[in-house]
Amino acid sequence: MALLADFAALCQRLARTPGRLDKRRLVADYLRALPTAEVGTAVAFLTGRPFPASDPRALKVRGLPAPRSASGGPPLTLAEVAAAFAAVAEAAGPGVRRLRDERLGALAGRASDLEREVLGRIIGGEMRTGVSDGLILESIAEACGADPSAARRAALLLGDLSAVAALALGQGADALTAAQSRLFVPLLPMLAELAVDFENVLAAHDGSTALEYKYDGARIQLHRDGDRVAVWSRRLSDVTRSLPDIVTIARRDLGLAPFILDGEVVALDSAGRPLPFQELMRRFRRVHDVETLMGQMPLALYFFDCLVAEGRPLIDQSYTARWEALVRVTGGRYLAERALVTSVEEARTFRSRALAAGHEGVVAKDPRSAYEPGGRGKRWFKLKAVETIDCVIVAADRGSGRRVGWLSNYHLTVHDDDRWADVGKTFKGLTDQEFAAMTERLWALALSDDGYTVRVRPEIVVEVEYNEIQKSPTYPSGLALRFARIKRIRDDKAPSQATTLAELRALYEKQFATKGRFARASDQSGPLG
Ligand code: AMP
Q: 86, 87, 186, 367: which is deepest, by most CB within 10 A?
């Protein structure tokens, strides 16, 4: 039986122990001495969570209320605290606030001053013990004699430190190393590194690579077991409620459940052409009146990976084996367009097809590679066709963090007759040396300084890459660059040679040669309002 008093004493010692290694030892020793059934709860509490991370329950209270009455009695256990939290989370109906307060108040009444403080911190989500999730993972590894990398991998797969700890301390280091993905626990998606030519890609992939269209939509991860279906976004928010059409497809058209699929959704206009990303995000955010938007903006779905099929985890298998499983789950429908290529010519032909069909490029995947959750490396490359425009810097914000001392966030403009029209800001694309040199140049051009933003004479031209031109409600130009980054400094260009607003409008319009356009009722006056 684990006592709250011991847990509180541990927190107090952790707060007073500055060294990382000492903290790790304290946590490891504590976890090792706990009954296995209590480990998950203790880890959740240590990380300032009333419930384990993958448990959707929440307390919905601001803090620990004053004790109902000091009732004394036997010392509180962690299991009792967990049960009280569960009772608070489950409270419902009229007078729910009072009910929650009563339940927590009764708990507070049995707690010592130190225990009350610790309970308050768990509820507030801030332990102030200097124990991060990373340190907990190291402690779990130490407690069961495993490598920290095994604990980190298990955390990616299980999505929850409590589950990792329970596995490690209940079943040992080998079980931790063998941990596998679980249904309805989303995995971080595998990411792609930017590449510019196919020679390097083919070299990195030993002469053969799997090319897929790179769809400019939003990443989704789809889990199904029986009738239960869930969809997660790239950042692992649960978007199931916003995407009932995907849920229907999962139940109606896809087999071999339990499965986990990875893919991209793209929003379409009524003519079936892809809509800009901005529009798609409205679908992801919508939770009310989803049906209406669903009718106006259907989704196209492209799967490109299968992480579990028939309940069997596949992430350690090769891309080729996972693709075969994906074909079986989908029956060949809803798949990303792809080709296996062994030469630069074949690769270029495939990319031309992708671009001609209106997609942003291709992703090249090593056919022999495993799926690395959250990993970005040479196993997956993205190759895009990027457009650039030339902007003039008219102001810069003072840098913070790593960039302190530099002028680092540049206000980018295009030429609009005798004015400069703002179209975005960026602090991306320059090397440290270039930042330092740019800072000096900008100070020499300074016109005014409000302590945060320095306005400068419009003299420096930079070539800027971007992913998309969007409509902007904030900039008077009406347009904004999505993901702007500086490709190079164009000292060879005079500000008067920068891109004009008229040209940018034309580029914006050109996007719709391949992308669809979403027509709102209030948007009859043309794309730029
Ligand atoms: P980026 O966001 O530019 O780093 O590009 C990676 C993203 O491209 C992924 O996270 C996916 O959302 C998206 N994507 C589109 N098509 C594919 C594909 N066939 N394979 C992998 N990712 C894709």
A: 186
